[in-house]
Amino acid sequence: MRKIRLRSETEYRIEVNDNGEYIVLDVADPTFPLRLAQYAEKVQHAVNKLKTQQDLVNKQKDKKGKHILSKNEYKKLTAYDEIYKEIRGYVDELFGEGTAQKIYGDRNWFSMFGDLQKCLEPYLLEVYGDKSVNEFKKMIEKKYGNEESDVI
């Protein structure tokens, strides 16, 4: 059986790890800006939810936990774990199933989603121009740019 692969000149293959795996960014896809805007909204909502959860935990009296973490530390880190999973799902919605695993592997870190934005910025600038990319960049930097956040 013959295989046909249609390839667009507006398709960028971006290598995302040391194993040679890549994601595809097709800048001619008219739905991409919409998905990007939805991604930004969902991330905003997730971060707001995390901040609310952290504020609630901070108001509770802390107690010794069963292991190395106090009760409040455990609740805070569990909330982070849930948010990372949620936002990884949004990355998969934006670029396709399995993208977050390709990019991040099994690791999570506070600025990981901002790091992705920084890597994609040159491609987005080329296609969508300075205004829309800068708005997206400001949103990400506001959420993840300050690694000394008081959220945890």
Give a structural overview.
- This protein has one domain (30-145).
- 61% of the residues lie in helices and 7% in strands.
- The chain contains four helices and two strands.
- It has helices at residues 32-59, 71-95, 99-104, 112-145, and strands at 11-15, 22-26.
- Strands 1-2 form a two-stranded antiparallel ribbon.
- Strand 1 and strand 2 (22-26) form a beta hairpin.
Output the keywords.
152 residues; mainly alpha; two-stranded antiparallel sheet; 2 strands; 61% helix; 7% strand; disordered C terminus
Judged by helices, strands and strand pairing, the structural class is mainly alpha
Total strands? 2
Give the low-confidence spans: 148-152
Distance between the termini: 55 Å
Percent in strands: 5-15%
Number of domains: 1
Give helix % range: 55-70%
Describe the global form: elongated
Furnish the topology, listing elements before pairings.
Layout: E1 11-15, E2 22-26, H1 32-59, H2 71-95, H3 99-104, H4 112-145
Antiparallel strand pairs: 1-2
